[in-house]
Amino acid sequence: MISIIKYFFLSILFSFQLSSQWIQQNSGTSQRLQTIFFLNSNEGWVAGSDGTILKTVDGGINWVSKSIPTLDDIHSIFFIDSLNGWAAFYEYDPMRHGSIIHTTDGGNNWSLQYTIYDVVLHDVFFTDADNGYFVGSSGVLFKTTNGGQYWYNISPILGYWLYSCYLFDSKVGWFVGGLEGFLLRTNDGGQIWSYIGIPTNQRMMSIYFIDDNHGWTCGATGKILITTNAGLDWLLGNTGVNVELRDICFVNPNEGWSVGINGTIVNSTNGGANWNQQYSGTSSNLYGVHFADASNGWVVGDNGIILRTNNGGIPVELISFYCEVKAGNIILKWETATELNNAGFEIERKTNNTDFITVGFLNGFGTTTEPKYYSFIDGDVQSGTYIYRLKQIDLDGTYEYSNEVKVDLINPTTYSLSQNYPNPFNPTTTIKYSIALDGFVNLVVYDVLGNEVKSLVNSYQHSGDYEVIFDGGHISSGIYYYQLQAGKFISIKKLILLK
C-alpha cells in the first residue's frame, strides 16, 4: 500500500456554526413579549406588555396584531383550538388587579371573564373547553369547570406566589412557585393537595410535562429539576448557567429547551440531565419558549424579540477544517461536533484568478450530537495556490458556507530516492521518493543476486512526494536492494532485514 509523505498543510482550527440556530422574526413591535403558545408548526400567538397580542398562521413569517385596548401586561396566553383561547393579564392603574379574558374567534375579539384585585396573574391553563386553572401572586389558584363563566378559589396555600401550572386532565395537575421554591400536586381537581419537596431553595418559574412520568421545572440561578417517576423524585439537571430561567418545553423524554435572562437558551438531548447553551444572537431577556416538534420552535422576549428555529436550535457545528498536500493531491479534512438535518457538504474550490467551482460532495449524517469526521481528496490540481470552502446543505435545501482555507501546492523540482527507515528493519520499513515530472514510475526490491523480490510501484504518477511501506515478513534476513526508475532517473539503495 502506498502512503504518501509530504505533510505540507494549512490547518484551520475553530468552532463555528454553519447553520443558523435561531433567526429573529419581524414581530412589528418593540413591546416586551412574555408568553407564547402554538397549536402546531403554523398557528400561534404571542403576547406581552401594553395589551400586545400577535398571531401567526404561517409559522411566524408574518405576525398580525390582535392587541387589546389596554396598558395591561399579558403574562399568559392559552388556546385549545384555533378559535377558543384565554389570556391572563395584570393592570397597574388605576387599581392593581389581575384579569382573565376569553376569545372565541382566534383572538380577534376578547371579553372579560374574571377580575381579582391586588393580585398578579401569572399563568392560565385549560385541559379542554370547560376545565381550566389560573395562578398568581399571594398563592392565588382558581378553577373553572364551565369555560370560565364562573371561577372559584381552590388555593391550598396563601402568601407564596404561584408562577406556573401544568394539567394532564381536569383532575391531575402540578403547580410551582415560591421565593424558596416548592411544588404542589393534586389528583382530584384541587380538593386534596400534596406538597412536594425539591432539591433547591430557588423559586421555580415554569413547569412542563410530556406524560404522567416525565416532567421538568425551571427557575432562578439556572436551576432545572427533572422527574421520571411522576414526581416521586426530583433531580437537579446540570445547566451550566446561573441566570433565571423563565420557561421550559420538551417534545419527548429526551429533547427540551429552556430560556431566560440575558438571551439565554439551553438545550438538552438526554432528558434534562445535561444542557448545552445555544446561540440566541441577543442579550435581551427571554421569557417564553414553545416547540411544535423537535425541529420547529419559537422564543419571545424583551424589545419585541421573536426567535425561530427550524432545526431545533442545534447547528451543524464545524470545529476543524484543514488541507494537506500529499503526492500532488490536496486532501481536505473536517470535523463536526453536532449536526441536525444535514444533507451533506459540497466541496468548492477556486484559484486567485477563477470563481468557486464544485469539485465534490459528501453526504452528511442527518441529525447527530456525536462528532463526525470527513475527508475529501482533490486530485485534479497542478502546482499553484488554491482556496477551498464547504457548502453545508440542510435536508430542506437551505445552506451555509464555511470559512475559506488557502493552500499552496508546490511540486518537487528534482527526482530523489531516500534511504529507507528504519534500516536495519524487522519486518517493515518506509521508502520515500520524489517525482519531478508526471510519468511512469517503477520501484522494485531485489535480492543480492538481482532477482526481483517485490514490485512496490508500477504505475503512472503525478509529480510529488511519496512514501511506500515494504513488508519483509515473507522473506529471510539479509541484504536487499531497492531501485527507483522514473523517466531517465534511476537510483539504487541498500536495505538490511534482520529477524
How many strand elements?
Answer: 43
- Poorly predicted tracts of residues: 1-15
Number of helices: 0
**What is the mean predicted local confidence, pLDDT?**
89
Shape: elongated
The CATH architecture of the largest domain can be named as 7 Propeller
Q: In a nutshell, what does this entry contain?
A:
This protein has 499 residues and is mostly beta strands. The chain contains no helices and 43 strands. The protein has three domains: 8-18 and 315-409, Immunoglobulin-like (Sandwich), CATH 2.60.40.10; 23-309, Methylamine Dehydrogenase, Chain H, CATH 2.130.10; 416-497, Sandwich (Immunoglobulin-like).
Label this structure with key terms.
Methylamine Dehydrogenase, Chain H, disordered N terminus, eight-stranded antiparallel sheet, 3 domains, 499 residues, four-stranded antiparallel sheet, Immunoglobulin-like
